[in-house]
## 1
Amino acid sequence: MALKIGATAINKLYLGSTAINKAYLGADVLFSGVFSPASLFAGGTDGVWYDPSDLSTLFQDSAGTTPVTAASDPIGYAGDKSGNDNHAIQATAAARPTYQTGPARATLDKVDDRLSVTVPTGGFTGTMVLATDQGTASYGVTIPAGAYDIGGRSGLYFPGNAIVGQLIRDGALSAGEAAATEAYFVANGATASYGAVTNFSQFWLNWSEITSFPLIDTSSGTNFAQAWQNCTSLTSFPLIDTSSGTTFGYAWRNCNSLTSFPLIDTSSGTSFSVAWYNCTSLTSFPLIDTSSGTSFDRAWYNCNSLTSFPLIDTSSGTSFDRAWFNCTSLTSFPLIDTSSGTSFDRAWSNCSSLTSFPLIDTSAGTGFGYAWYNCNSLTSFPLIDTSSGTDFSRAWQNCTSLTSFPANAFDNISGGDFTDAFTSTALTETSIDNVLVSLVASGIAAGTRVFGQSGGSAPSSTGEAAITTLRSRGWTVTVTGGY
Amino acid sequence: MRLTIACPDALRADGNHFAMVLGYGPADAETYVALNWQDADGNLYACASLIVSDTFVSKAQSTLSRPAWDVDNIIDMDAARRAQAALVFSLTPVAAMPDKLTACAGDDALATLAAMGLSQVEVDI
């Protein structure tokens, strides 16, 4: 029922100068000036609206026969108040959320609890407002038809511990509508801001339906591990406050639709392991502050659209294992500070567009296995410090354009595993001689002593003499030409 | 009382028959589904957590009988009894075992699982 003058609905009603919130005709509300989410579904607009504060919508069983009446009752059925009959159910008893009061909410154990709705044909493309005990936010979403968990993705991943309210509308909400809906849920007891949350680990993990992410308050967050992992529909990311964040491991892994990334404050971050792994649509990366970062392993693994990389501060980094693996579009690499790095295994493997490589500080590096494997556009290589290195197996294998390699590169190495190190390269006679003579200079006569080269030129008599010496020290040497 | 239960992979089928006996219908055959948890030795578990009554605990430890709803004999009572025989019930967390259905009381399900020596299986690594 609505109060109208002719065909025009009345938005505001006054008694004198005092606005009236509600007017009744008998028991029926004739006029309401108070926002109700129901208004968002006028005219048959599809979507869902769950409201645990309305006990009449909650039932213990999935058939909707036994009402929820008290705290600790299971919720097997949450009625949809949008008018679309998209009720959410949980048929398995152990997986039902629990009703709690103060505020009224559906609590999730984050082990197996979840309610599921069957999204109708056509799906929902619009806005989701999710109000929890830890924060409230609005997201752009595209949800396909079929089963959809409104609480706890796979029973595990949810930005909070309880649902205080949730609304999804097929059709984007205006900013005002979203704000009004958030305020409605907050009035029902939802926490307005995520500003007090410190641990965001796995909050939005696997939320592939999110197409936009809001600028929420994350200023207290220290742990962002896996927070947005597998959010595969996000094309951009807001400039959230991550200044307190220390752990960013796996944070944006597989966000493979992100085309850009903001200059967030990561100055406190120590772990960036796998952080942007497989962000295959990123074409550039900002100059974020990584000065506290120690772990960069797999950080930009398979970011294969990155054409350049900034001169970030990696001076504290110890692990660079597979950090830029398969960044196939990188044409150059900056002179970053890798002086603390110990593991460089596969770090630039498959960076097949790199035409040059800088003289980075690898003096602490022990592992270089596969480090530049398949960098098949490199024509030369700098005289890096290999003095701590023990494993160089396949380090330059398949660098099919690599012709020039410096003298004295391995004079001070700590170990002799060069298995297939220069297999399928294009080393000149001088370069292969340089390598072999340098290995002799290293004096390595114990431990693993294997060297492999194929492609390019055979060594000269100088190189052959070096091979003879190496073999006398127990080395197994394979070179082009078969000497 | 909140009860958190770790069901090892080998007992999943039996555990789900047991869950149907204690539960309300055939949907309870989906109680132990995803092997999302593992112990230090890498043994995988499907876990469930729910608030239960004392009656539930008593029923779980008593002679099992086919529930009235199971007129079609969906439940394999032998399987349910095998799961019951493997049941370890504790008011405090005890280590999950790969040949036991371990049920522990505790208000915080995730904390209970951690105390049972279980950690989440890494996602899609």
## 2
Amino acid sequence: MIDETRQQIATDYVLGELPPADAIAFEKELSTDEELREFTRELKEGFASLALEKPPVRPDPGLFSRILTRANAGGRPRSKILSFLPWALAACFALAALIAGLDDFRRKQEVTELNRRDVIAHLQIASLRAQINAYTNASAIVVWNAARQRGLIRLQDLPRPEAGRDYQLWIIDPTKKAPVSAGVVPPEKLNAGEVEFQPAHPITTAAKFALSIEKAGGSMEPQGQIILVGD
Amino acid sequence: MERDDQQYEIELIQRIANGDQAAFAALYDRLSPILYSMALRMMNDAIEAEDVLQDGFVYIWQRANTFDASRGSPISWAIMIVRHKAIDRLRVRLRGERLRQRASASPELASDKDDQSALEPFLRERRAQVKSALTQLPGEQREALQLAFFSGLTHQQIAAKIATPLGTVKARIRRGLLQLRQLLQSGR
């Protein structure tokens, strides 16, 4: 039996109303709780069915060719292994640096645009934003290369962690039961350019990236507060 | 939906994840009329609805490998993707007061209804079920659900719009969704 509190969380999740950190925690629950997964699936099917209330309308016949052009410009689907171009990473961060001073919305738009460009089409770029008020000014940009299974993160305006604590990066892969550690950020590298990372386990799909505060040296699974999240 | 139809769509998505453009075209043919209808209702503007559909299908092309059949059907996956794309645009639009007024106007669909979609008559049947289920919901739950789905407003904004406490709005949406789920299950 799913109690009312969890029903509400499931509802908020389906409607996209959960804060990212809570959504990640809920997805973790879904991967282990079959009853909750089935309940949430049914809620989602019911909610999505609202789209069927009105009759279908066929869009402009030329629209698909425009979609195809855009899709092709963005490269093959992300499951395809593509070659790694080191200079592209540099290009990413040069461009990322240009947009780092913009507000969140502009940054998101710019990152979307970057993802579309041919030069970096095979790389995934994520903009991580603060989840809690104490870190409102903090942000990060992640560049992830699935083919090489490694990436770079640039952190901005992140305060030094308290003694005995470290920032730890996580990759949320829907095919895994728990977030995968991508390592601890060395304190001396905070706000000092890019930090290279490699996940502890192979990543199939990097759906989201998150940064949490953990005990010094890091944890096997997120235990501390998640402060930045993005995809 | 017929099981075979759903299985076919799952196979299309798997092929799309491998870069199969023919599968992409087939999925577009099947789903675009539903998704475009939804986008039109949300955006109340044909050009913006086309942009939303473009965003959604490009995302489907790029992220087909993230589809998980254990979490939902292909059609609900696609609906939720396009809805998110529409909400992204609506929330930008809602920042301007002029556009806020426009978005709150009663949305009427352009015509060009598509009864030739590959998914008819499933859609006709499902649409009848959804309409029937919605009429059985209390009016306040139906209103809250429809605002939550189509308006792009957050729960907080919905609460402000209908001058109702946030907790009440959340409860109406939750109860409405639970009841909708039951009604649709019993209608199958």
## 3
Amino acid sequence: MGMQYDVLSYHASSSGLIYNGRTRLKGVVISPVASVTYNSCFVDTAGSLAGTYDIPGTTTCTVTSANHGLSNGSRVAINFTSGTAQDDAYTVANATANTFTIATASLTTDGNAAVYPNILVELDSSSGTAFYTLIPGEGVLATEGLAAVLPIANVSATVFYG
Amino acid sequence: MMQYDVKSAHATNTGLLATQNPVRLKSITVTSGTVSARNTAVCDPTVNDSGTYSRTSPSTTITVTMTNHGFTTGQRVFLDFTSGTGRDGVYAVTSTGDDTFTCADVASTTTSGNVTAYSSIAVEIDTYNTVGLPILIPGEGIYCPNGIFVGCGSSVTATVCYG
């Protein structure tokens, strides 16, 4: 019999830090509230970027983050910590040294953003049926910390880690 | 590989003290009988406080009086309403004093009664429709040193396996 280990759980009602430190993501329950497509991400906080964003009444959001190092086509999770943009997973486009764009809903808003390039698991939902994903093996390693990026107020999650 | 046995217990919306022994929670299956938001929580049965509550129409705010509750604003606790028509579930509390706190409900009918708050939650599961949700907890499970209280939301049942 292998070494026993216990796990812990965390209930996330919104985006934020789950655990600060090296850990493994072992399972996720996604609980959506509506039959709308949402993306929920669980990320390694290692390599996270701080920046600002602006959506000037269009569907193009410009994110400014010094020396972000991202490439066109990269998938990132973004927690918009102010303004009204929706936390989600996005694909990077038009990357320059300090800026890139993403496609969003048409909005007029701006604010601060935390960008997570290291997505451990991205789970999509399209109905109000909660579902569980048991991650195989020992789970997915988060080297520095584990955080959730959830669509605002529309999805909650229970995370197992350890 | 060494075999080991587990036990199961079935909880209805009155809640269930499954065991007071140190165990590991191995799995939980949540089945809701309603298409509406519900919370189910597995809690430490020894970490609880009792008090009274009231909700006055048309407000959806529940006011709880509980001596030295010690809760902080934003903390999630399972509230087991043992009388009146309060809906059992996990609530984020707003501390309004050493002996009082409030939380937001969806119902607005006038009610009052007694309530027990379980504030050490091992796992919380949310559901929004009637599809049963089986959850196999990874590894050896979640260690519950003082046993297991299963708190179900209204119209929700749960089956836990532990060992």
## 4
Amino acid sequence: MMAFIRPRLRKPLGIALAGTVFAGAWALRGGDAWQLSIAMVVTVLVSAITTYVRAGEDNDEGALAGSRADERQKLLSLRSRALGWNFAMVAAFIGVTVGVAVKATWWWPFLVILAVADFAYLLGLSNYGVAQEDPADDVGPRPPARSPAS
Amino acid sequence: MRNRVREQRTQQEMSQAELAAALGVSRQTVISIESGRYLPSLPLAFTIARFFGLTVDKMFDPDEEEAGT
């Protein structure tokens, strides 16, 4: 489906879609939350337009925002995501530890984040071939070469 | 690792943007390769070497340090 969408539009549309769904959740909440929902839609639209404009720039951020990154830019993005994942894990660990220490009721969502991240990490190892190593073909010494005369 | 990308590009009187377009990468990546900040993948190294009509080991020399690094 993504192939039918112009690369430059993919990230802005993703932001707009995710933001609209989240704003819809606030609208469904009822009460005065609809005001927050409208503010969120405006914020998301501004963010999507900003991303679209950035996607037109001739730099690494523009290439990533415009879904036209080459191998170095993809590597940059991957390493940045890994850094973000590490920070999120430390934050979740601090959250669950503090939550348990102060006998709070909100400690378990942090544990869910840790569990999901650990499961995703193991899934990644499995998907990307760690468990599919081929056996080494150099086990044991080679038989000695026989002389043609023997 | 030293490479001869800048040397070959200037010999052919190409700009970094023209080389980037020919290789299918960004101008920023050509700049990073030339300055030695980024080591290209093996497929890209072959593409670069073939583009200039050289072998990979002529294009990239692991025994020589990049000047200024």
